[in-house]
Amino acid sequence: MNPQLVLAALAAATIVPITASAQTPEGRSQRGVAAVRAANSGATLEPARPDFVNAAAVYPYSEGTIYRAYTAPERVTDIALQPGESLMAVASGDTVRWVIGDTSSGTGAEKRIHVLVKPFSAGLSTNLVITTDRRTYHVALASTPGPAMAALSWSYPQDELLAVRRAQEAAAAAAPVAAGLEIERLSFGYEISGDRPHWRPLRAFDDGRQTFIEFPPSLAVGEAPPLFLVDERGEGQLVNYRLRGRYYVVDRLFDTAELRLGTKRQQVVRISRTGRRAR
Q1: Contact 81/106 with Cβ under 8 angstroms?
Q2: What 3-state class would DSSP assign to 202?
């Protein structure tokens, strides 16, 4: 073969650059960096005008969210935690060019922790991780020539929902089982027999029109047993009833009923009327 032809062919050949494959360590690293960048960008919450109450931004708290805080030199930004929340630690990615401290306001249950931040110059950025006895806050700090956020804090939708639910449960527990009950008309002539599960009723009584079955507080733990009316042949039939707190309210009188729960090993508690026969 002519050597000159070989050299010419090599010179004319296209050089293909070697790129990082998705299977190489470099390729996996690039994909990982891109995933982290996308996750942080999607999780970062920027301040918007509706978030401000006067000059303070109030973010809705959500686990794993990054909250943006804009600061400025010669200005202190106040990061206020929930009243009653105890500060555990504050960590920052840059403790040289940022002044970070904490203080408190109020006393007792209303005592509130404040984390104070101030940059030395504009154009800086770092992150802040605040851990407390209740949650963890992730804050992205950025310094600009101005203006700076005076303060930021959080609202806590989950805590508010829990408080509303507790208030509703307390109101339901305090409400009477039924309105218009006349004490002199109540009859407690019922006998409870059979198995002794944790939900075994404490007593049963009626007002001549409705029957009430009182359970222990453990009824709230686990499954509630269905109620069957038992006829003279011993056959059970489901009956309609309402659950009011710890009581079953049956809109009729009965002579015999059974609470049954389980399949393989069924637990049965019988409620028998020992007074006058039900009409």
Answers
A1: no
A2: coil
